[in-house]
Amino acid sequence: MWSWQVILALLALAWMLQCWGTFVQIRRYRDAFRHLSSEYSDGWMGAGKSGGGFRRGAIVMAVAAPDGTLRRVVALEGRTIFAHFQPVARFEGLSLTQARAGAEAQPKHPLERALLTALDQIETVRRGTTPSEATNLATFSPSLA
Fold this sequence. Notes:
The protein is an alpha+beta fold. It has helices at about 1-40, 95-105, 110-125, 130-140; strands at about 45-50, 55-65, 70-80, 85. It has a four-stranded antiparallel β-sheet.
């Protein structure tokens, strides 16, 4: 009977640690989002996620200028709460088309997949359509796909 109590206590402790880790990661995401959105008053911002679970994942936030160049790209990569958002300088200053081509060159890498999702968000907002409208347009108009 004592062993069941220890097992349940360990499970409760693991669950509390998971909740705390989730809280820390959400706070880091919000802080990075708030910092990027307040740093620039014009342009567009997109966020993308790839991977996760037991695989290595990435979250990318990208800010594009009105002229279509990437001003700032930050990424959070890893599996633990010890990961922080870091700048990704190799994409900063590139046009959206150049950044997309660079990310498509390594489609299996989590950072590049997340960047592609962020770029898709930026393009959707630049066009002035919502994601569901963009999906419907792509479905019904082969020229937009």
